[in-house]
Amino acid sequence: MSTATTPVDTAPSDTRAPRAHLLRRLMANPLGGPAIVFLLFVAVVAVIGPFVAPNDPSATSLQNIFAPPGDGLVLGGDSAGRDIFSRLLVATSFSIAGGLLVAAVASAIGVTAGLVAGYFGGWVDTMGSWFTALTMSLPSIIVLIAARSVIGPSMWLTMAIFGVFISPVYYRVVYNSVRAVRNELYVDAARTSGLSTPRIIGRHILLAVRAPVILLTSGIIAAGIGMQAGFDFLGLGDPTIPTWGQMLNEGFYNINRSGLLVLWPSLALGLTLIALTLLGTALRDELEGTGDERAKKLPAWTPSQESDPLLTHGEPVPDPLLEVDGLAVAYEGKTYWTTVVHDARLRVARGKTHGLVGESGSGKSQTAFGILGLLPMGGRVVDGSIRFDGQELVGLSYDDMNKLRGHRIAYVPQEPMSNLDPAFTVGSQLTDPLVIVQGLSRAEARERAISLLGLVGIPDPQRTFDSYPHQLSGGMAQRVLIAGAVASHPDLLIADEPTTALDVTVQAEVLDLLRDLQQELGMAILIVTHNFGVVADLCDHVSVMRKGVIVETGAAEDVFREPKHPYTQSLFDAIPSGAPRAPLPGVTSSGDLGTGSLS
Amino acid sequence: MTEPLLTVDDLVVEYPAQGFRAKPFRAVKGVSFDIRPGETVGLVGESGSGKTTIGRAILGLAPVSGGTVSFRGEDISHPSTARRRELTRNIQVVYQDPYSSLNPALTIGDSLTEPMIVRKTPKAEAARRVRELLDMVQLPADSATRMPREFSGGQRQRIAIARALALDPSLIICDEPVSALDLSTQARVLELFLEIQERTGVAYLFISHDLAVVRELSHRVAVLYHGELVEWGDGDTVTSTPEHPYTQRLLLASPVPDPLQQAQRRADRLRLKEIQAEQDVQAAL
Amino acid sequence: MLKFVGKRLLAGIALVAALSVLTFFLLQTGSSDTARRIAGQSATEEAVAQVEARLGLDQPVMQQFLNWAGGALRGDFGVSWFNGQPVTDAVLSRISVTVSLAVGSVVLTALIGIVLGALAATRRGWLDRTVQFLGVLGQAIPGFLMALFLVIVFAIKLDWFPATGYTKPGDSVNEWLLSITLPVVALTIGSIGGVAQQVRGSMIDVLNRDFVRTLRSRGLPVRRIVFRHVLRNAAGPALSVLGLQFVILLGGAVIVEQLFSIPGLGPLALTSTSLGDIPIVMGIVIMTAIVVTIVNTLVDIAQAWLNPKVRLS
């Protein structure tokens, strides 16, 4: 990362090598490698099996009934004296072919229909959802059994019908990914570039559908092989075509004569299906990057960079409520730590508002979560100290921290809608902490919650109390969250970009509310923001953060009047100057309102 | 006085509502304005004001249910598919989200040549043009062979601008092109917009929720509220001494980065709020 | 909500109706020479014609369908072509056994799968790996292969359970339990993994949602958050996967019954399909579809009820 003052901003430090070939990556995968090797072996057997089988797999022989292995019969003979080894070779061929047929039929129908329905909608969409509902209303084995009563014992037809029947699996996956991509801006951009619809489908849509289809196919082949085995195990298959299912059937009904009969086909079937499933899992890991490669042994965290000196304005705040010193926050990676906060130093005065400003990725929110002890999974405070009213917070257990959280320290989040549980009413979300944490009775909690809603300026508290989050506007929801935060009369309120998701006019009202509440309750506020306007409006003190380090701190007036750090200066320079643009020559300066535009 | 490049006259956009016999949702309710060649018109409004929808209607991505959109005097509200594709040579777009506006699976070069494939530009010619475009948006020439994920948000937005410029359009719809960017990146991208306009004489419809950004870039400004145009005129006038109560509220609501000035503005806003509330009461009586 | 339930019920009825039409024409018109097969190869032309008339096969297909559909609406699905037994009786007596196998397996799957999934989501570690292993196993090994293995080990080698046969719960509860243990276990092992993985996935999803952090910031204990908020929000996806498992288990039961000689739908389906006894096959298809549609509808309604947006509209 270069400094922010260079003319071209830099890319995120993504130094991954260009995508290695998928097959190579699969081979290196601990599950994928062995699965592929085994499946290749099965494939070879399936192809050459019928040609190298030493005997006719269907030739019966009285003298070979239950013959032991040896004497020309590698694995012995079955109940009709047929050569088990030859049967196994040929059965492999038919079983694999059955699975492939299912996948071919299902993908041909499902992918095509999914593409058309996903992109164009219309009657194909309606048909698709009906057919999907139809297939979901019956187990496929029932359908195949019913079909057999008409078509008779035909392996190929049965597998083709099964392919039709499970084609909705492809349909839905393709449909959903087309729908997702269709709304991507790059598809709109292609359209505004003048690309025709077939071109857009070929260029953008197929690309997005490829991975999920590949992923599904190993599972569908497995389902086909499994279904064929089940069908033939029931004795419904074509007796002239040896398959694993038929061999299982034969073995099972003669289990008391020879246990080996059932062993070979079960092994072949079981191992093949497991290999296909593992291949699917490995494919998903590689295509979607979901593999959880555990770190072998993460080395101890070490400070990774020299930190800038902290430039201060005036004397440091005496007897601060919150004092953060040398704070470092890092995330566990596979082999190394990613440090997001390096050496943060912060003093928040009692009853004052302190702004923590920075651009995205500066670590300002991470600092806030670190103080709250609510870092996302994998994140940890690795160094430094956080003292709240003299008490050290670093190293406190979750339960000990809970004696402060929700009592003396409170939190207001950025995105109001996603921070309320959609399944519960506002009232129940407000009263629950009051009952559980503050120990109020249900009735007291209810009364208090309603008065809190009034306090944050909600016009009809009772109605909001009974509402679900989806019934509120963003501004209302943010007021509810603020009400929840101040419920315990906290000494410190940590607000993470509390107005960023709101419209400007709503933002102004929420800022007013925060100011009023602070004066009323006498609490300190640590507000994380990227907006200097918000800081100017609300804050007594401000700290500027860059790349995990706080570079400048002081009284808001001083920092705004005379920024010392070059980075702070560059941020101020980047604020739109407010100088209007000269009117275009030849255009009258007084705007002429179009007709019918004003109500 | 020059002829307008684009004229939007009494534009109405309606979306069919979900559900049987439900009333359609009217996102834009009769909006009129025009853009002249080489001009920047700012379109300001908050969420739900219909500003993005107007841009999409001009591009043919949202249904024009009433009124007209004309380009150089030609009605383009409901063009044929072929005509719409020809129009894309003249009207281009830069979107807000720099992350989803580039296909993550295509190289930058592929994305940039996309508009040229349709025009059957020869390969060498297209490659030359890509270099030229990358140079114009101040990105290194080797960017063409790289993937979107190797670029930051600001760089991606430059790429999106380059793509919009590929066919030498006369109008670019800029839909919140800097609101997803950090402050310092935003400033440089805005500079780039201005510079390109000076060099190529392209006109912009600059859609944004940020009055300060719009003010810096626009010759004329239109203010939208709930799908209606409430104020329209010279950029300086609309953004510093607005007449419509909503624009007044909008102007005073956005905080200025100076504690003293902001204290003043806050006081002004609270006073305005009282006055308007009083007027509302009187209007109701 | 009422509107939603009404719509969902209508859709269910329409689905079963569409399925009936489809099945009737595919099966009835697909089978040929029915009367000849029933009457026997050596029967005279008159005898064949007699059979045809008796079964109504000499009427136009449309008429046959109207007759069948008229009966079906009154719960009369006709009689078997071969032994004259009423289809409704034959299928109902069998389907109850199959459905009880499937329901037993689904309940067991739900109990174990949800607990396992929830623990894996909150604890991770070895539980996580167990769930993943079960998931792969369940996905890879068909129920009947699992059953085959269980029979060989626990019935034939160890002799803990009967290998085949079925005792009605009315005759002896003990014997009944013994006779269905292996089939239910075989079916359940295969489906636990899928459910547990789904529950684990959706719980981790919910745990990473923003509101969980906000709830934590209010000082609520983790237990309270998981039981009250996370489980509730993860219930929807868990319900869908259970609904899906029910259909899969129903299919699995049909095969497993044959293996254990349990007098369910499986053996009936096998004999009637081999004979080409279309009325019975039709009855099996339609009644199974009705059972599954009822379950799917209940799942949908439960899902909608869990979602305040739908419940309140």
Describe the structure.
The complex is a heterotrimer of chains A (599), B (285) and C (313). By secondary structure, chain A is an alpha/beta fold. Helices cover 50% and strands 12% of the residues of chain A. Chain A contains 20 helices and eleven strands. Chain A has helices spanning 22-28, 32-52, 84-120, 122-136, 140-151, 155-182, 185-192, 197-233, 244-253, 260-288, 364-372, 398-401, 426-436, 442-455, 461-466, 474-486, 504-521, 532-538, 556-561, 566-574; strands spanning 311-312, 322-332, 337-348, 353-357, 379-388, 391-392, 409-412, 492-496, 524-529, 541-546, 549-555. In chain A, the strands form two sheets. In chain A, strands 1-11-10-4-9-8-7 form a seven-stranded mixed beta sheet, with helices on both faces. Chain A has a four-stranded antiparallel beta sheet with strand order 3-2-5-6, covered by helices on one side. In chain A, α3 crosses α4, α8 packs parallel to α9 (244-253) and α13 (426-436) crosses α14 (442-455). The longest helix of chain A has 37 residues, at 84-120. The radius of gyration of chain A is 34 Å and the shape is elongated. By secondary structure, chain B is of the alpha/beta class. Chain B has ten helices and ten strands. Chain B has helices at residues 51-59, 81-87, 108-118, 123-136, 153-165, 183-200, 211-217, 235-240, 245-253, 259-284; strands at 6-15, 25-35, 40-44, 66-71, 74-75, 91-94, 171-175, 203-208, 220-225, 228-234. In chain B, α6 (183-200) links the parallel β7 (171-175) and β8 (203-208). In chain B, α3 crosses α4, α3 packs parallel to α5 (153-165) and α9 packs antiparallel against α10. Chain B is globular and about 70 Å long. The N and C termini of chain B lie far apart (46 Å). Chain C is mostly helical. In chain C, 81% of the residues lie in helices and 0% in strands. Chain C is built from 13 helices and no strands. Chain C starts with a helix and ends with a helix. Classes of the chains: A alpha/beta (599), B alpha/beta (285), C mainly alpha (313).
Series of H and E elements of chain C: HHHHHHHHHHHHH
The quaternary state of the protein chains shown equals heterotrimer
Please describe the biggest sheet of chain C, giving its number of strands, its sense, and whether it closes into a barrel: none
Q: Termini separation of chain A (Å)?
A: 52 Å
Shape assignment of chain C: flat
Unreliable segments of 5+ consecutive residues of chain A: 1-19, 589-599
How large is the count of helical segments of chain A? 20
- CATH names the topology of the largest domain in chain C as MetI-like fold
Straight-line N-to-C gap of chain C: 6 Å
Kindly name the structural category of chain C: mainly alpha
Shape of chain A: elongated
By CATH, the architecture of the largest domain in chain C is named Orthogonal Bundle
Question: Which secondary-structure class do the elements of chain A indicate?
Answer: alpha/beta
Q: Can you count the beta strands of chain C?
A: 0
| Fraction of helical residues of chain A | 40-55%
Fraction of residues in β-strands of chain C = under 5%
What's the pLDDT, averaged over the residues of chain A?
84
**What is the averaged pLDDT score of chain C?**
84
Share of residues in strands of chain A = 5-15%
* Alpha carbon gyration radius of chain A: 34 Å
